[in-house]
Amino acid sequence: MSLSREQMLVEMGISPIWVLRDSSPPASAPEAVPEAEAITATAATPQITEAPTAPAQPQAHQPRPPATAVDALDWPALARQVAECRACPLCEQRKQAVLGVGDTSPEWLFIGEGPGAEEDVKGEPFVGQAGKLLDNMLASLDIARGNRVYIANAVKCRPPGNRTPEAAEMAACWPYLERQIALLKPRVIVLLGKAAVHAVLHDDKALASLRGKRFEFAGIPVVVTYHPAYLLRNLPDKAKAWEDLLFARRTLREQMTPELPF
Ligand code: URA
Known about the structure:
Layout: H1 5-11, H2 67-70, H3 75-84, E1 101-102, E2 108-112, H4 117-122, H5 129-140, E3 149-153, H6 167-184, E4 188-192, H7 194-201, H8 207-210, E5 215-217, E6 220-225, H9 228-233, H10 238-256
Parallel strand pairs: 2-3, 2-4, 4-6
Antiparallel strand pairs: 1-3, 5-6
The structure holds uracil.
């Protein structure tokens, strides 16, 4: 089914207030865009937590190979290692690990929190209701899953009951996401919600205070917006998410425009 631009904005709940503009910045952005804020993120030290009551299991959590080893993996080896990972308790209840989906030479990388129940079954990120909204957000930017965009999560295994992943779980999974970023080399990274912000920028400030700013990870610009699941519960904030996407698109276009020699 192909939706018109107007229908997409309606679907995102932001029509008729927000209309697509060209790449020039809005005359009066509701939120100031401060100067670039560089954050040097370092791989957090993974903390391996023992399963509290697990019966003796020879396959219980095993330390993941050090980040330096993950650093050297190509896509097939990375996918294999993630599929077999037992580095944190999330492996106990997953049906499968969910690596990510999309174009492996993307312009855009969207990072969410972690797989939910449907993602756990299908092995693909963002396939439930939040995923439908994310797809509509992508469509409003003229991109689609698999084309110029890759979608990943802060953790690859479903947190039980769809709870937020814990810091130790995100730390255990971080080398995989870090390796994905290195292999993908996106032009812009969009962090969807607080867990993704914690995983990539190690920042736990209120999400609202991070919007509209340009962060950086490994030389790649990073912008922050609300998680689609949050937007489904807070419809008025969809307009803010749309602003954030336009900001991300401007950031991307700046990246793509070669600098003139004068
Ligand atoms: N929410 C996420 O953050 N990621 C998914 O893959 C699905 C829902």
